[in-house]
Design goal:
The protein has about 550 residues and is α+β, with helices and mostly antiparallel strands. Helix 8 packs parallel to helix 9. About 20% of the residues lie in helices and about 25% in strands. The chain has a ten-stranded mixed beta sheet.
């Protein structure tokens, strides 16, 4: 198609919802001339599959990215090599725009189409596509697909949330995190894809920037990513896994991040190497941009409550990812960001920053230390105080219950976890008390072990009442700690009813008005391709009774 005035093109060919998305996606002046390409694909542009996320009663976010495969299979490709390969496989230039059409159906046979439209994408957003499908019916499954030129994507299945006032008998979700590509296969994702679920809740470490030569089952391509092209390549490598693609295509996802999406143990503008903050923030912005380009997630616009940000108006230096979701009258769910706003870890090594195990770290108890930042903490406190639903779920990236170890010279803690932010943890749990709400359950990941624990204002003090419950899912693939260290943690923390780090998998969480039932489904480390997951343990929280209970 030859160049034409953008405004004329949009009003003559796109549906009204697509017009708004295309205007936002282009980020060009109203009178700019747009050159729309006609791609001639020589390879499948939907190699990374499709995904959906952020389910609301009337909307869902649909995702794909035009990616015709790796430029240098099995190796790292430069930015120029990636661009040249894309141009050769698509017949498009990198400075052109491309219309990607989408269809949404109310039946699996794809005979009842309810929406169709087009989304305009371009190289500056990595050829990614984020369609905010609106006007859908609550609590309904939908099927969707994309098309670019003659190429058609796989079909994905998604589901909207129930209406805010709907009486909902059940919410079934998978809790997952920590999927180091090198350390195992995604048998857990294969299992999740076959489950009957409302959603997948993924709480961090979607990619790993790091490597460990001792535990490589299948290698990363490229070294340590620090630029936008390198982070894009790492995300693409993960998405090329068939089991991960199947899991995205099977269910809508709700996500937050942890540290490995950028760099291990980073805290706000600080990293382990004490890099100049301005230089690190540039790297962080590149990592954040690559994350959003590859996920069915889009940041919240500042000052918009929980509304989405304009697709290309975002400042990736400070994107807001924390959000609130409701599931009828059954549950409120808050996703939290435990990385972008936190204080640096206490008692840091002057040579090697980040987290470490220390004894008697008084700095960890300082009242001004924060995990969530003031604005996010206030937002959560207001949400909890206003909540009138049966269950209140706090989805955050790590373990809240204490993992410190009693030693002859004092209690040792790992400073990157909530133990390094003990005043912030107490403030979080005091917020629950002050809100006068019950049925609060924290859902976490990060620590590569299954955990069922009680949450008290004073950890492990039987005189301090239990105010909330906690489930932490083990990693999808990432290696856990040794049994000797974990045995010492269990012995020093009676609030932990269950902790095992030797197996990989996820947690299957089944919520009804009467109880929350959690099954830890696992396979030995390293996870093998096609491995069958088994039940490791199961626990429940009964409505109106704070604290987890074993289920035999």
């Amino acid at each position: 198609m030859t160049g034409m005035k953008r405004r004329h093109f949009l009003h003559s060919t796109l549906t009204l919802p697509a017009i708004a998305q295309a205007l936002s996606a282009m980020s060009l002046p109203a009178q700019a001339t747009v050159q729309l390409a006609r791609p001639q694909w020589r390879a499948d542009p939907f190699a990374l599959g499709v995904a959906s996320g952020e389910p609301r009663p009337d909307s869902v976010l649909l995702w794909t990215r035009l990616y015709p495969g790796p430029a240098v299979p099995g190796q790292s490709a430069s930015e120029r090599q990636q661009q040249a390969f894309f141009e050769a496989q698509s017949g498009m230039r990198a400075d052109q725009f491309c219309a990607v059409s989408y269809e949404i159906f109310s039946d699996e046979a794809l005979t009842k189409r309810v929406q169709r439209g087009e989304f305009i994408t371009h190289a500056r957003r990595g050829w990614s596509v984020h369609v905010r499908a609106q006007g859908l019916r609550p609590d309904r499954p939908y099927w969707y697909r994309f098309q670019s030129g003659a190429a058609q994507s796989p079909v994905g299945r998604t589901r909207t949330a129930p209406a805010p006032d709907a009486v909902v008998p059940r919410l079934r979700l998978a809790l997952a995190s920590c999927q180091h590509y090198e350390q195992g296969h995604y048998a857990a994702h294969a299992d999740i894809s076959r489950q009957d679920l409302a959603l997948v809740l993924f709480v961090g470490d979607y990619i790993y920037e790091s490597t460990n030569p001792k535990y490589i089952v299948r290698p990363h391509t490229g070294g340590l990513p620090s630029t936008l092209p390198a982070y894009r390549e790492r995300h693409a490598l993960y998405k090329l896994d068939a089991d991960l693609r199947a899991c995205h295509a099977a269910h809508p996802w709700i996500c937050t991040w942890d540290d490995h999406e950028v760099e291990n143990d980073y805290a706000n503008d600080q990293n382990r190497s004490y890099t100049d903050p301005a230089a690190f923030l540039a790297r962080r912005a590149a990592a954040y941009q690559a994350y959003f380009e590859h996920m069915p997630v889009w940041p919240v616009a500042p000052g918009s409550g929980d509304g989405p940000q304009g697709l290309d108006d975002l400042d990736f230096a400070q994107p807001r990812i924390y959000q609130h979701y409701a599931w009828g009258q059954l549950a409120d769910l808050w996703t939290l960001d435990c990385r972008q706003y936190r204080s640096p870890q206490p008692c840091r090594d002057p040579i090697k920053g980040g987290g470490r195990v220390v004894v008697s770290c008084q700095e960890s108890e300082a009242a001004e230390r924060t995990m969530l930042g003031q604005e996010q903490a206030q937002w959560l406190a207001q949400g909890l105080a206003a909540s009138r639903r049966q269950w209140r779920l706090l989805a955050q990236s790590t373990q809240i219950s204490s993992t410190g170890v009693n030693t002859p010279v004092g209690r040792s803690i790992f400073t990157d976890g909530w133990d390094g932010y003990s005043a912030a943890r107490r403030q979080l749990l005091q917020t629950v008390v002050d809100a006068k709400v019950n049925n609060v359950v924290a859902l976490g990941g990060d620590v590569h072990q299954n955990v069922a624990a009680q949450l008290r204002l004073e950890p492990n003090n039987p005189q301090s009442p239990i105010v909330a419950s906690e489930f932490v899912a083990t990693s999808i693939t990432s290696r856990g700690m040794g049994e000797f260290a974990l045995a010492r943690i269990r012995a020093s923390n009676p609030d932990i009813l269950h902790a095992r780090s030797d197996e990989r998998g996820y947690a299957l969480v089944d919520i009804t008005p009467e109880r929350m039932h959690t099954q830890f489904l696992t396979t030995p480390f390293p996870a093998q391709a096609g491995a069958k997951l088994q039940l490791q343990a199961q626990f429940q929280v009964l409505a109106g009774q704070a604290g987890v209970q074993a289920v035999n």
